[in-house]
Design brief:
single chain; 358 residues; alpha/beta; five-stranded parallel beta sheet; 7 helices; 28% strand
């Protein structure tokens, strides 16, 4: 009997080709689109949101073309609790979150995998540009994809061993161009569909307005721009408008380029400094998660990424207080941002990671 796999289909070309590839490999494939979020049913869709009504329609057309059954599963409650509420709370507290990481861990894997196992599936699969491998220490790990340009491993660092043991990622063996070529060759209706945007539940990119709608009176009001030693430079619009390293949109006439170097939610202040003040050699990470290594030991060295688009830099890790990690880079890094994740790579595989605290 063929093994059964549930493919999370966003309506995009990557997950669509993933479903086709798995069927070609002999799996019994079921296509599923997750209903995650729709703040306003009357809102005009751009067609790029991975959780829009048009995405469901596109995924259904692909499933019909590939010849697999298709279902819609509702994970709105899980998405709101684990992604949207988390996103809003982090910004309110002066941090810059990565909602895709939370969505992957708690919705696209935890919720979808649980539901899939309940209906008799052996695996779940996605269209991520990444690969699941078994390391020499017998631990599962996410490995970088064939194409560095589209590599999506950073946002998958906190998946568990159980989740990885039940995960297939066929797209990781291909480049984006090869995936589009396959979609075109087999006549998939989404072969030329643009990639989805970064934050699917904020299609207008105005995260500050979204936070204000969701948080209401809890949204932080305006306060002071200050230097690191407390000198007041002007007034800001509210800390949710800013992130470490930001230069544009500050509306400060300083006669020279200045940057956000820190956010102080307790005093409602945004700290401003010159570019050299945005660089640091150390950070502290909490919520530490081990993937390709069973535990972190003092002095371990990794290629380390501090944001999705970061090229990576060499760093050493050391144990800190309260189960944190102290990460020391060989060279200073720009805009280490609380709320973002730090992810460690070893031989092209994720060793683990954590959430940047400071």
């Amino acid at each position: 009997m063929n093994q059964k796999v549930v493919v999370g289909m966003s309506g995009g070309v990557d997950s669509s080709v993933a479903a086709y590839l798995l069927k070609e490999q002999g799996y019994e494939v079921i296509g599923v689109t997750m209903r995650l979020w729709q703040e306003d049913s009357d809102r005009e869709e751009t067609g790029k949101e991975c959780c829009s009504l048009s995405a469901v329609s596109d995924a259904k057309r692909v499933a019909d073309a590939v010849g697999i059954p298709f279902y819609v599963m509702n994970f709105k409650d899980s998405f709101k609790e684990n992604v949207v509420d988390y996103f809003v709370e982090e910004y309110i507290h002066g941090r810059t979150p990565n909602p895709c990481i939370a969505c992957n861990r708690y919705v696209k894997w935890e919720s979808l995998l649980k539901r899939s196992l309940e209906i008799g599936a052996d695996y779940i699969a996605t269209g991520h540009y990444a690969r699941v491998v078994t390391r020499e220490n017998n631990r599962y790990a996410v490995a970088v994809s064939k194409t560095a340009k589209k590599d999506q491993t950073y946002a998958l660092y906190n998946l568990t061993q159980e989740q990885l043991s039940r995960t297939l990622m066929p797209v990781g063996e291909y480049t984006k161009e090869e995936i589009r070529a396959i979609a075109d060759r087999i006549g998939l209706p989404v072969a030329e569909k643009p990639d989805s945007q970064e934050i699917c539940f904020i299609p207008d990119h105005d995260h500050a307005s979204f936070i204000a709608r969701m948080a209401g009176e809890r949204t932080p009001s305006g306060g002071n721009f200050v230097t690191s030693d407390g000198k007041v430079l002007g007034e800001h619009r509210g800390i949710v408008h800013y992130t470490v390293g930001q230069r544009k949109g500050l509306r400060l006439a300083m006669g020279k380029p200045v940057f956000v170097t820190g956010i102080r939610p307790d005093t409602n202040e945004v700290v401003i400094g010159e570019e050299h003040e945005v660089f640091t050699k150390e950070l502290t990470a909490g919520q530490v998660h081990c993937m390709g290594v069973p535990k972190f030991k003092d002095g371990m060295r990794f290629l380390t990424k501090i944001r999705y688009a970061h090229p990576g830099a060499m760093a050493s890790v050391f144990s800190g207080e309260n189960d944190t990690l102290r990460v020391v880079f060989d060279q200073p890094q720009r805009a280490v941002t609380p709320g973002q994740s730090v992810v460690f790579y070893e031989d092209g595989c994720i060793a683990g990671g954590g959430v940047i605290q400071a």
